[in-house]
Structures are given as structure tokens and as C-alpha cells.
Design brief:
The protein is an alpha+beta fold. Strands 2-1-6-5-4-3 form a 6-stranded mixed beta sheet.
Length: about 120
């Protein structure tokens, strides 16, 4: 079974590779994902979010900068910034709870400035 650190590594590598299948493989079937727009429960609810993010970050000149990463036991936290053609992610944070080698819970919050 993968450790929290290994799950986070895989998750970040899958995002960098724009692999929706890789991203979804990190979650359990009943994962809970808290977003500013509401709570997503299960893979079918989480998939459209990643499809939209992968499409946005696949645009030319997109960038992602990790500012901070912490892993303690079954919890992980990342703080980051990013630029895409459409948005400036001025500051963003994700918190993860990993159980049995899968993300059981994630929360996401960001200050996003649309460019258009």
C-alpha cells in the first residue's frame, strides 16, 4: 500500500502529465472533495473537475509553482500558485487525507483572478 507521500507524489505527477486516469486512480470510490463551489462525493462527481483543470492547464504557457508541501502521517498539505491562459491562481491550497493508499478526503481553496 502506498504511503501518503507516495500518493501525493503520484497525484502531482499525474497532474503534470495531464492524466485524468492517473488522477482518479488516487481516490477511493467514496472520496469526498470539498471545493468553494460545493462538495463532490465519489469518482463520478470528481472526474468533471479534473477534466476541466487538465484542459485549462494543458493550454500553452501554463505554469504551476509549488510553494510549500507538508506530509504528516495520513495528512498532506500543498500551497501553490499557477498561471493559465484564462486564470491567475494567486494563492491555492489543497489538504489531503489518505487512507489505505487512496485519497479519502481533499479540500481545495484558491484566490483565482480571471484574466478576461
Amino acid at each position: 500500500m502506498m504511503s501518503t507521500n507516495e500518493v501525493l507524489d503520484h497525484h502531482l505527477q499525474s497532474f503534470a502529465a495531464r492524466s485524468i486516469d492517473g488522477l482518479l486512480a488516487d481516490y477511493s470510490p467514496d472520496s469526498v472533495f470539498f471545493t468553494p463551489n460545493g462538495t463532490l462525493i465519489g469518482l463520478n462527481a470528481i472526474q468533471p473537475l479534473f477534466e476541466a483543470l487538465v484542459q485549462e492547464f494543458a493550454q500553452p504557457d501554463s505554469s504551476f509553482t509549488m510553494l510549500h508541501r507538508s506530509v504528516e502521517g495520513d495528512c498532506a498539505y500543498i500551497l501553490w500558485t499557477a498561471e493559465t491562459r484564462d486564470n491567475s491562481y494567486e494563492l491555492a491550497a489543497d489538504t489531503f487525507l489518505v487512507r489505505n493508499g487512496k485519497i479519502a478526503m481533499q479540500s481545495f481553496a484558491a484566490k483565482v483572478r480571471p484574466k478576461h
